[in-house]
Each structure stands twice: as C-alpha cells, then as structure tokens.
Amino acid sequence: MKDYIGYAYAFTIGLGGVFGFLKAGSTSSLVAGLTFGSLAAYGAHRVSNNSKNVGLALIVSVLLLVVMSSRFYKSGKVMPSGVVAILR
C-alpha cells in the first residue's frame, strides 16, 4: 500500500524550501527543504514497499520536529516552523 500521507508530507517540506528561497532568497532553506523532502519521500517509498521499514521516515520526522519546535520556541513565529512542528 502506498504511503500517500508520507508523500504529501515530503512534498510539503520540499515546497516549503522552495517558497523560503523565493520569498527570502534563502539558499539554505532551499537546500534543507529539498534535502529533507527527498529523504522523507524516500522514507515514504520504503514504507510503501515494506510496512516494517519505517526507520528513515521516523528519523526525518523526529529530526524535523526537534529542529522546527526549537525554532518556533525561539522565534514565536508560527510560519514556517510552527506549522512543520505541528505537521509532525
């Protein structure tokens, strides 16, 4: 069975990186968004092929939760860190 939620999450992360680049000119947002989005998509692909293979998807998810929660706590801004933390 396909992990459509995982793919949607990966797409959202990658799209967020692209929007961060377009809005603020942040190359680091672009690189991080595309890197984490690609890793999340690969993790979703692995979950789709073998339902017991959730390690990579879980690692990406927890890492983004920790990083974005920390950024939300420091800045108090809901966009984008609060939204990503809530999604995860």
From TrEMBL:
<dbReference type="Pfam" id="PF03647">
    <property type="entry name" value="Tmemb_14"/>
</dbReference>
<feature type="transmembrane region" description="Helical">
    <location>
        <begin position="6"/>
        <end position="22"/>
    </location>
</feature>
<feature type="transmembrane region" description="Helical">
    <location>
        <begin position="54"/>
        <end position="73"/>
    </location>
</feature>
<dbReference type="InterPro" id="IPR044890">
    <property type="entry name" value="TMEM14_sf"/>
</dbReference>
<keyword id="KW-0812">Transmembrane</keyword>
<feature type="transmembrane region" description="Helical">
    <location>
        <begin position="29"/>
        <end position="48"/>
    </location>
</feature>
<keyword id="KW-0472">Membrane</keyword>
<dbReference type="GO" id="GO:0031966">
    <property type="term" value="C:mitochondrial membrane"/>
</dbReference>
<protein>
    <submittedName>
        <fullName>7715_t:CDS:1</fullName>
    </submittedName>
</protein>
<dbReference type="GO" id="GO:0070453">
    <property type="term" value="P:regulation of heme biosynthetic process"/>
</dbReference>
<keyword id="KW-1133">Transmembrane helix</keyword>
<comment type="similarity">
    <text>Belongs to the TMEM14 family.</text>
</comment>
<dbReference type="InterPro" id="IPR005349">
    <property type="entry name" value="TMEM14"/>
</dbReference>
